[in-house]
Please model this.
Amino acid sequence: MFQFNVSHFQGKARTGRLSTPHGEILTPAFVPVGTQATVKSIRPRDLLEIKSQLLICNTYHLYLRPGVDVISNAGGLHGFMNWKGPIMTDSGGFQVLSLGAGIEHGVGKTVKLFADSTDDSRVEALVDMKKSRGEIITKEKFCFVSDERIIFKSHLDGTFHEWTPEKSMEIQSKLGADIVFALDECTSPLHNREYTEKSLHRSHAWEERSIVKFRKLHNKAQEIYGIVQGGPYEDLRTESTKFVESHDFFGVGIGGALVNKTVMEDILDWVSKGLSGKKPVHLLGIGGIDDIFAGVEKGVDSFDCADPTRIARRGDILLSPDDGGTRKNRWRANIAVAEFRDDLTPLGINCGCPSCSEGFSKSYVNHLMWSRELTGYTLTTIHNLFVMEKLMAEIREGIAENKLEKVRERWMG
RNA sequence: GCUGAGGUGCCGGAGUUUGGUCAAUCGGAACUGUCUGUAGAACAGUUACUCAUUUUGAGUUUCGGGGGUUCAAAUCCCUCCCUCAGCA
Model:
């Protein structure tokens, strides 16, 4: 049922086919984020129309609401959300960061660090600086970690929930995604070497418990990815890659990789050296257009990212090179600003996405955004995901024809 | 023409009774920035001018126009203009 076959290589970049019980995924693939069993503001039929192949939903959010049994009784996520294609579920590991140290450190998973940020003294100096400016501390954490378990404090109602790797597996089994992730701890870019190393070994222990539990569940309709952690430290990344490769994981996830752009490329480089090449590789949570090229060229097969759908709801539309997207403008334009109020051209003049080909103008979407009208979010979300799919299709074709550099040149300049 | 109610920053709208802590509460809007396994249809900052600046800052011109009282006026007095409602 599960298979991963590479059909072409160009260097480390590769294109292939990932087979799951709910369909095949052409790789490299972009994975829209559907945290709460919906890609916000659009329907499964919209996803089909723009040729999205695989979604990622979030175990933590769905466990809290509507609850695992509701989804299980509906026939799992596929039945519940009426998306018949492949799905992956995150394990809750990211919430360890986003609800825990992320709040404590006052950062998301990215932070503008120095190029040589593997130097702990400089990272700690940055932490001190952020503390002195009052950018750190302040808010209460929602997630607490120990070797044995995670304790979440629900962001919805404040109730406490204990999670173990075993529990994450049980929940993910009931949710019924095609691909599940082992429970890990995603570390903050502001964690030091000592903590990151300790955390890595804890993640490995959790991942071992995850796979033992997962195999015991004998759920043939699912497969599991392990996750490489290790922060910005080469030896830890190498060790972690070896760990995931040598265990019975179907695929490899790379987590916590976007410390900053420079370090991310280093991390991808270190990890790619340790990969056997047989397992599909998913880069967790990263999907900037430049990041995707960086990942593909190191052998990454799939990317999920909340950014295209999130910025869509703010009025930022993605621009392919056909519509003036460049590295300089970060392939985007904000359609909600006043200068577009009278612009009757489509969002992307040369786009061809459902929103643009139906003729919805910048002026109209500007008005919808300005008025907070829901249709606006739908139109921009469809547009942005379409641009991502256009990018991925070009990348796949580029690799197949040994001209990836031309695709890169077209998008990156 | 009479009577009454008003004229405040991009807009709406506080503040005027008890002059100072008012470059002016609050809301909207705009602009800028942030955003990458979604506590996110979010958040932060800016929105009179000049200088200084890591911060606290200093100065100038502002609350319909003009004049006055006062150490000090969006707030008090005089006068003019304008808007709205009712009555002629």
In short: The first helix of chain A runs from residue 44 to 49. Residues 134-138 of chain A have pLDDT under 50 and may be disordered. Chain A is about 45% helix and 15% strand.
